[in-house]
Amino acid sequence: MISYRSGIKDARRVIVKLGTALITREDENGLSLGRLASTVEQVSQLQNEGKQMLMVTSGAVAFGRQLLRQEAIMTMTMRKSLSPKDILQNSRLAIQRQACAAYGQKGLMSLYERMFQQYNIGVAQVLVTKTDFYNPDSRKNLQATLNELLNLNIVPILNTNDAVAPCTDTDSEVSGDKDGIIINDNDSLSARLAVLINADLLLIMSDVNGLYTGPPAMEGSRLLYSFCPKEESQSITFGVRSKVGTGGMESKVKAAAWALDHNVAVIISNGQVDKAILNIMDGKKIGTFFTNTPSNSIPVDVQALKARDGSRHLQRLSTEQRQAIIYKMASNLIDYSKEILNANKRDFEEASKIGLKSSLISRLGLTEKKLQILSTGLQQIAEKADVLVIRQTRLADGLMLNQITVPIGVLLVIFESRPDSLPQIAALSICSGNGVLLKGGSEAKHSNEILFKLMQDALEPYVSRDTIGLINTREQVSDLLQLGKYIDLVIPRGSSELVKSIQEQSFRIPVLGHSEGICHVFIDKEADLDMALKIVRDSKCDYPSACNAVETVLVHKDLIRTPFFESLIELFRLEKVKIYAGSRLSSMMTFPPPLASSLRIEYGDLQCNIEVVDDVNDAVEHINKFGSNHTDSIVTQNRAEVGISTGRIHARGPVGIDGLLTTKWILQGHGDTAREYINGDKKFLHELLIPANVYHRSEQKIRAAQI
C-alpha cells in the first residue's frame, strides 16, 4: 500500500472519480467541456505510460437535462401562449432526474469515446446498481469484467444506472453486506470499485482543493495536505454540500476512509487546477493525502507559521536577550555533553550496522572536543547578534534614510549526517532573527533529537520554543517545498544529489546552495613547495568528506619528474589516499596511477585526481571547465589575480544596480591550515579594521557606533 506521496508515482491501477461539480457548468445546464477534455488528456497520458486507468463519472443527469430541456421547449403544445420564461420553468418541473440520466448517459458516453479516440484509447461503458455490489455473484462478475477490460488496455467508464437505481437500500441488502460501505453516491461507488479491483490509488476530483479543517471560506480554516482518519485529535467541521451532485465533502471523507481501511491510497483534490492529476501522480503536494500513519507531530504548515511568529518576537528582543539565548545554547552543549554523546553513540552503532557510507559515518561522530569547539563557536556567534546599518542617507534636514539588515523570515535548512550542524544553524538563525525548520539526516536521528531539545530549551523564556522546529521525514520536506507562502529561503547542506533534488522540488522558494563540491588546488612552479604539501594534506586528509575538500590537485608541468612530485605521491600513499591520473599526467608517466573516470567528480573520501597544467591560466581554464565554483586554491609566490565565478542569489527589495551585484570572497594567506587553528597553534582575531554602523535594539533607534 502507498503510505507516502513519494510512492504515488509507482501506482499502476488508478481510479479517477469526477464529481458533478467538476464537470458540470456553473448554470447546472450541461457539461464543462474544457475541464472534461483536460481530464481525458491527463488520463490518456497515464494510460499510454502503462498505467491501468478507470473512471467513475457523474454528468449524465446534467447532460440529459440540457438536451431534454431543448426537446421540451420544442414540443410544448402551448408554445405560442407561453413566454420563453414560462416554458423553461415548466420544463424544469416536468423533467425527472431518472429521465435525464437515461437520455444523457448515451450522449455522455459518446462524448467520452470521441475524446479518448484522439489518443488511440478505447473505452467501455459499465453501468452499475447497488445490487451489483451487494449480491456476491453480481459482484464477482463485475470484478471479472473490469479486470478483463483493464488487462486489454481499455479504460472502463462507470456510473450508477440512475435511470433505474433505487434511492434507498433495503434492509436485506445492507445486512447481507456487513463489511461494505453503503453506496449513496459516486464517492462511495468509487471506493467500492477501488477495493473490488485492488486499485493502488483512488483520486476523488472535485471543485475544492481538498479537505479543510472547516468550510473553506470560514476564517481560520486550513487545508490539510495529509489526513489520518484514525487521529481523534483532528477535528473537522463540514459545511453545506454543493448545490449540484448527491455527495459532499463529508461523503468524500467517509468513502476515502473506508477505501484506506481496505489498503487503497486516496487523494481528494481540485480537478479544476491545471494538470492536477499528472502533478499528483508526480508526487507533488496537491490535495489531501489520506494515510493510516499518524503524523505524531504538528502539520508542517503549522510549524512554519509558528516559526514565523517566533521570528517576529525575536525581532522585538534586545541584543542582550538574543545573546542570552545563544549563550544558553552554548552552555547546554557542555552541561549535557554526556547525554549528547550517548545519543550519538547510538546513531554511530546503527549507522555501522546498516553499512552507511564511510564518508557519511565520518561526519556523524561527536566527541567532547568537538562539543567544546562547537560551544565556543556559538559564543562567537552571540557576539555578532546585532543589525548592521549598511547605508545611512540624509534626504533632507531632519529626514534620514537608513538601509539596515533585516531577517529573511523563515528558513528551511536540510543537512546530512553532521549533527553538529544543528546547533550552529539554530544559533545563526536566532542571531539573525529568523525562524528555522531543521531537517537532519535520519542516520543522526538520536543526536538531532537531543540537540534540538537543548536548543529549544534555550529559547525560553524569551520566545516560543516553536521558533525552531524539527522536520522528521522527506515527505514533510517535500510538502514544505511547495509552501512558498510559509517558507522564505531553503538552504540544503549536503551531497550534490540532495541539493539538486531540493532545487527541483522547490516551488517558488529560492534555494541557496551549491550542487557540488568539486574543489581544486593548483600548485604553481613558483610555489613554496613545503607549504604546498601542507595545504594538500590539510585540504584532502583533514576532513575528506567535507564539501570543500580538494578533489583534484593541478600541478604545473615543470614540477613533474621532480623531487616535489615524488613527495606529493608519497604524501598521498602515507595518508592512504587513492590517486587517479588525468589524461595529461598519464601520458607523461611510464607507470601512471589508474586513469580517472572523470575530472568532474566529488569523491567525498580518501580519493583524489592529479592532473598537469601549463600555467595559472591553464589551471583557471581547467577549474572553470570541471569545477563547481565552490572552493579553489592557488599556491604560488607570484601574486596573481584570477577570476573564478561563484553562485549568485538575487537581491531583496527594489532592484537597481546594487541589486544585480553580489560578492566574492578572495582569501590571501601564507599556507594557513585548519588544523593549526583547531590545535591552538594559531588564533583567530576577528579584528574589524573598517568601522561599521550598528543598530542598537535596546535603544530602539539607529545610532552610529564605532566597533
Automatic annotation (TrEMBL):
InterPro entries: AceGlu_kinase-like_sf, Ald_DH/histidinol_DH, Ald_DH_C, Ald_DH_N, Aldehyde_DH_dom, Asp/Glu/Uridylate_kinase, G-glutamylP_reductase_CS, Glu/AcGlu_kinase. GO terms for cellular component: mitochondrion. Residues 13-268 form the Aspartate/glutamate/uridylate kinase domain. It comes from the Eukaryota. Its EC number is 2.7.2.11, 1.2.1.41. One of its GO terms (biological process) is L-proline biosynthetic process. Pathway: Amino-acid biosynthesis; L-proline biosynthesis; L-glutamate 5-semialdehyde from L-glutamate: step 2/2; Amino-acid biosynthesis; L-proline biosynthesis; L-glutamate 5-semialdehyde from L-glutamate: step 1/2. Pfam families: AA_kinase (PF00696), Aldedh (PF00171). Gene3D superfamilies: Acetylglutamate kinase-like, Aldehyde Dehydrogenase, Chain A, domain 1, Aldehyde Dehydrogenase, Chain A, domain 2. One of its GO terms (molecular function) is ATP binding. Keywords: Amino-acid biosynthesis, ATP-binding, Cytoplasm, Kinase, Multifunctional enzyme, NADP, Nucleotide-binding, Oxidoreductase, Proline biosynthesis, Transferase. It catalyses: L-glutamate + ATP = L-glutamyl 5-phosphate + ADP; L-glutamate 5-semialdehyde + phosphate + NADP(+) = L-glutamyl 5-phosphate + NADPH + H(+). In the N-terminal section; belongs to the glutamate 5-kinase family. In the C-terminal section; belongs to the gamma-glutamyl phosphate reductase family. This is Delta-1-pyrroline-5-carboxylate synthase. It comes from Didymodactylos carnosus.
